[in-house]
């Protein structure tokens, strides 16, 4: 079943399969790998129910199988998280249809989709892996990779929600569940791939959004502001995407401002005074 799309994997996942996946998520702090006897007993599954469900989950890639002290044991994968998230977003009437993958980053996979009112949406599935675990653990969350991934999605949703509520140029967040965030789809391309007609105007829109985030969201700054995370369309509308790592840290704010100013300086020879921009973004001027 390697070639199945995520939507197809969701479609073959059964009620009992979901129970098992949710159980694996729920027990994540206690066990990263859960023995068959614990799964079966906790969920009251017969031998046959367990066998059928676990086989299907293995085939869709939702779980992996290992052995603990001679006993079969399961652990959930990123695909497993994606499946539970998608089903739950559908049940909550946030996501009606899922389409192609439109972006695959280091720590996420982004799909195109449709809401129940047929608006186009982007669905970002977070994937904080064991590789990034070490680096991030002190910074954000003192737990395992599933918890970190779930935290990341929630944080991105909340950050988008605050900036959007205050009219910043970010995609409207529509909901989140498990490791996925659903937001408005923006038909634009990353800043680094295009030559904008009025760069002063685009820069002003970016800085205005940084100011909104600072002033109205309790000192929040993006934390990874770069021409990769700014999308622009033909009418020069701007969207700053990718907010899970946003922090309330002055060094991060200065780095964000420095990154964006130096990009506009290099590419468009626009020079702005760093300190003045910092004061503006902090709401002092
Ligand atoms: N709301 C959106 N509308 C349209 N496209 C989007 C949206 N959100 C994300 N994308 C697409 O998905 C890509 C990855 O999104 P994002 O930057 O949020 O994730 P990421 O994990 O940081 O990826 P990367 O590591 O490449 O930066 C974007 O470059 C963009 O092409
Ligand atoms: Mg990004």
From TrEMBL:
The protein's name: non-specific serine/threonine protein kinase
Domain RIO kinase: 67-283
Catalytic activity reported: L-seryl-[protein] + ATP = O-phospho-L-seryl-[protein] + ADP + H(+); L-threonyl-[protein] + ATP = O-phospho-L-threonyl-[protein] + ADP + H(+)
EC numbers, comma separated: 2.7.11.1
Keyword ATP-binding: yes
Pfam families to which the protein is assigned, alphabetical: RIO1
Family: Belongs to the protein kinase superfamily. RIO-type Ser/Thr kinase family.
Lineage of the species this protein comes from: Archaea, Thermoproteota, Thermoprotei, Sulfolobales, Sulfolobaceae
Lineage: superkingdom: Archaea
